[in-house]
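User: Predict the full complex structure for these chains.
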Amino acid sequence: MSELAQQLVNGLMIGCLYALIAVGYTMVYGIIELINFAFGELFMFGAFITIMMMSSEITLFGNTVTMPGLNFFLAILIAMAVVGIMGVIIERLAYRPLRNAPRLAALISAIGVSILLQNVAQSIFGSDQVPFPAIPLFTTAAGAPKAFALGGVQITYFQVFVVVVTVVAMLLLNLYVRRTRMGRAMRASAQDKRISALMGVNVNKVIALTFLIGSAMGALAGGLYGGVYHAAWPLMGFNPGLKAFIAAVLGGIGNIPGAFLGGLLLGVIEALGSAYLPMGSQYRDAIAFVILILILSLRPSGLLGSTVSQKA
Amino acid sequence: MSIARKKLSIVSTVVLALALALVTVAGCGSSSSSGGASASPSTPFKVGVAGPMTGQYATYGQSHKAGAEIAMAELNAAGGVNGGQVSIAIGDDLGDPQQAVLVAQKYIDDSAVVVVDGHQFSGATIAAGAKYEAAGLPMISPSATNPDISTLGAYIWRICMTDAVQGKGLADYSVTTLGKKKIAIMYDNSDYGRGLADAYESGIKAANGTIVGKEQYATGDTDFKAQLTKLKAAGPDLLFLSGYYPEGSKIAQQARELGMTVQLLGSDGYASDELPKLGKAAVEGMLVSTFFDYTKTDPAVVKFVAAYKAKFNGANPDWFAANSYDVIMLAAQAAKNAGKNDRTAINDALGTIGTYQGVAGPVTFDKNGDVLKPLQIVVVQGGKLVTAPQQPTQ
Amino acid sequence: MAGKRDTGETDGQSAGAGGYRVRLNPIAAALVGGGSTKSQRALLGVLLAIAVILPFLIGSNRWITLMTVVVIYVVLASGLNIVVGFTGLLDLGYVAFYAIGAYYTAIIFNQVLKAKFGVDVDAYWWLTWVNFVVGGLLAALAGVLIGYPTLRVRGDYLAIMTLGFGEIIRIVALNWVGLTRGPSGIPGIPKPAFFGFQFSTQKSLYFLGLALALLSLWTISRIVRSRIGRAWTAIREDEVAAEAMGIHTSRYKLLSYATGAFFAGAMGVFFGHYLNYISPSSFMLMESFLILSLVVLGGMGNIAGPVLGATIWIALQEWLRDFSFVQAHPETRGIAMGLVLVLLMVFRPQGLLGSLRVRLEMRPGSKGEAEQERQVWSDADH
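Assistant: Here is the predicted structure of the three-chain assembly.
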């Protein structure tokens, strides 16, 4: 029984990470309807910059460079800021010119940005995995993660931290989008850019801000992910980016609580499917996709998605 | 015609012409470099290095390249091979069979390339190997373990052990030497990981051990708690990990996070300083099989390690680098035996080279161009890999 | 509103309904609009001549191999073009059909004939040719099966479902070791032979591939100009309207998947016999994205687009390999390719050979109206 409980906890933990990534992803997605392939790379840079800020020295372009060696919390905030700005720049250069172009052009541009960033990261940080420095608050003197047992289930303090951050982030973001003026502007732009513009919304600014916040969320997810798995590497963003996309679609495009739910669901399905289905660990990803296809067949607009008639 | 349309048609015509010109010019440019292979003693000794230099396997390709660079520097410092300067070309195959074939064709066409150090991944090796065999360019793989490579042909060699042999050796080591009875296996679903795990499993059963669980993961996975939770419930006294160190370091960390204290045994894909660097406290005490132990005091090993550390910021070489180095040094020796830097001569000399003492163990080719090497075990101690107290009986 | 590619307009210009001018550049018109004028036929002839003569001029196996790879991707991109470009269905799992064809022929030759029956595969040379069709049909069947659940779904939801299917097939291929030998792949697929003639040289394989490609392109252009093609275009432009006009959208969508899949499957069979070895690593998700990029890069919705896209991308990738700077820093090749993709999209979003007509589907109206909108947005700044 404790095995099942442990598996559930495992699944929820992965699910939280997916949820955090998906929330940032769906924000952007909702407004400009772009499958942001480069989101995984922003996530990856978030992890790397966190590591950079936390280390006392790091190897960049093959040369050792001294680094500030800040604490984790400050490092991740800096990473969020830097990656947020990166996101805005990318939007300005690679996506904004294509806003009036066929949707696929922006998609391919995003693929190009993704390839570009992956290789740039390999240039800067090398191809080896870079270890994530231990966070003193969450690590014992012996170097092991601080953990506790709850009814036979092993949980680390850092995992709890991740869950808390994810929930808080989701709530804050939702609040922002639902209650503030800017949030209203975002929702309006998501619904109809032209009319919003006519109503006095500065759509360009809204989109830039969305990218800023969404990318910062991605970086937050990246930093936490790096902390959970103790490493960062140039291609670490591909799978999480894909999972974010799946979770976002599962929950309903543009829907923040939906993305959160989608992420959690995806994580739990993966863990339980892997553990309890025959040959589960082998077909784990396939199981997740099958569930996805089933859910979309029954609810074509996602779990919490509104059945807004899409352009045919 | 409107101006816009004229522009459009001009642009497209130009682009199309450019595309075709690109292919033509590049083709003509390359074909001018192909000529007969000359047999004069001052012919350069050019090695085609092939492996994944970018993409998800880049870290192994970079090690491979590093080892090759050390070999090149050492040979040139000693005056080259048969009087010819040693140089290496880098072919990025991304671990993909299709790309590997393109790299292979490039090397085949380049008459200066006399031997290929690569490819690293089995799929790439099989696809490219067929080309090298047909063209008569000797290829020595440092790391491809698929059994089908044995029968690719007379020009295809490798200096890594096949999974069958390593698996059996490790199984005997686990049961007989270490005295473990209940074994769990976690393997990477790659050619190597799966093949080795299967060989290990049969070996365990043959040695009267019990397999209490066998779980799979995919290369590039980061979360293994689902599989580990299952294995933990089975209560093993040894967990055998068949795969590579990036996943392995995380598996070890997550096992410890789940409260598992079981002894870990890793396959040779774990034999790298990256393992303790990434795994930190979680991998202390982990046993790893290897064909290259950088703490050995053999003069050749010491020299290689010193050269590597000098060039790469004090880092210790892993077995990818060591094997790559051995391939080139071996090929150089064959060329010296043959007296000339020529593809066929080198290939013939490889067949009669006897036993070559490499830094990663002695190389004796069997009739298929495969080798048999003694297994060594290292243990992670204080963040380094040191020779383990218990070694397998050879 | 549907394009008038099929009526063979003499100079590639035509007027659509509502007075919109649909302009096609002459190269696209030549390859799409049919050979109704001498100049168009001449252009086609020239391109064909280049494709045929080039291998004899170059002589180096490396570039002939490259041209073979280009030819494979030309067909793959053209097949995907049917689904994405002509019918407007965003398929992100296309590589699965390619895999089905490749695995089918590999399994038949290696697992069944050689392993199970112990037969000499060379005696069964004729099976290769049969497999082109059967492999294609098998993939087409998969296309229908995959397409069916997606009928109710739109846009990115559809994309995700197709992506999921593509991945499921790859994961099955990777794990069903009994059938596909899992990650080890299937070696020993014989080279094609025809009544004693062995396609053993690179050149012969290239010409075989070229012949298949020409056949495929010709077939595709014929289908696209027929009623079926018009139905597809109608579905892409406005599905609801198409349904209202009496087009059974479900049927045509499934046909679109099936047709696109057929060519991928057939090319998969060719791939197997050309490389003589199949492994799951050739069918990763990134490959689907790459083929999609080729389609968009070249220009969707017309026949020549994927041809150009595939040629430029693959030639560029290989050309970059030789620079010593790239050899020392292999990542720069990836950086360059990524930049090329972004720049090409930003400066030519309709693709290299894409006609302005493609813009019509996103913004009803001329370029002027899009300009006006941009004005409106920046006016809101104040």
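Chain B has a mean pLDDT of 87.
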